């Protein structure tokens, strides 16, 4: 056992928030509390919890998790659960490193030796996806050359509530272009496409057999997602804007999700991700964690993925458009080779802890005066605010 001696956070480019916890014996663990566009809110929550939890036993991970959840009175939501994720992941890393084992060993052991992964192509306003999938460009090497056989793209740019159906045509052509390269494609509607267009786009995509469609509608419209799920054979994926097992529960009960995509940095960390995965397994729903974030979040996901029978595929942010011109997934760690992809898979993370070695010198240097990332948003031609 060892009491928590210090807790710190580091805002780092491009848009990540790292957490470091140290116990009285000098054992260290790292977590990630990134919440895109809301860094300052998460930092405020961490300030309050750090003051309260310093001096507690670092090994008591579940007790600290329950304190964050139950003693706050107001619970859940993206800010609280992202702050909790940073603490929870760091505590798991600290404990596993202290014991000299990988985190997945403490979660029951692995059920696989490698993990299937996918990467992004295109930006928020999709460009030439086929070219990007095949040809190197400034900040992302060719996905096929990198070893990927599955990619994900945005379905559309910003669209109106009821837009011209012609805005859907390019999405279909981009999916066809990727499929012609021998790759599978997930299509992220990103909650941008409202019901009048979503119904049309799902029907147009169905003959081209996308791997999944993601957030076909915003998660607050569970009744419409259920109806849509009954109209198509395309697997429906969602979950990045669900922040706990209680948020996930109604979607599983409604039978309207085929692939669950919780974000480990938004659901309270490793502890809650493991519970959500078990719930999904009971409903025959696959796990494909959302992770367009940093190396700590990805490593935490991988440790859980290795232990879950219903794991399907892992998102990774290597070369994603958000990272262009800044740090990438291989930054802030001393063993970036762990993210090498071979035939669509990355190898087992062997540990100890998260299986990554943080370059603390780089973290501290780049966190100095780092600006908080702001979600850009979309504005329509008439001045309306559109879904981003």
Automatic annotation (TrEMBL):
Cofactor(s) needed by this chain: Mg(2+)
Species for this entry: Coniella lustricola
CDD domains noted in UniProt: D-galactonate_dehydratase
Biological processes annotated in GO: amino acid catabolic process; D-galactonate catabolic process
Pfam families: MR_MLE_C, MR_MLE_N
Domain Mandelate racemase/muconate lactonizing enzyme C-terminal: 132-235
GO MF terms, alphabetically ordered: galactonate dehydratase activity; metal ion binding
Keywords: Lyase, Magnesium, Metal-binding
PANTHER family: D-GALACTONATE DEHYDRATASE, D-GALACTONATE DEHYDRATASE-RELATED
Protein name (record): Mandelate racemase/muconate lactonizing enzyme domain-containing protein
UniProt-listed InterPro entries: DgoD-like (IPR034593), Enolase-like_C_sf (IPR036849), Enolase-like_N (IPR029017), Enolase_C-like (IPR029065), Galactonate_deHydtase (IPR023592), Mandel_Rmase/mucon_lact_enz_CS (IPR018110), Mandelate_racemase_C (IPR013342), Mandelate_racemase_N_dom (IPR013341)
Top-level taxon of origin: Eukaryota
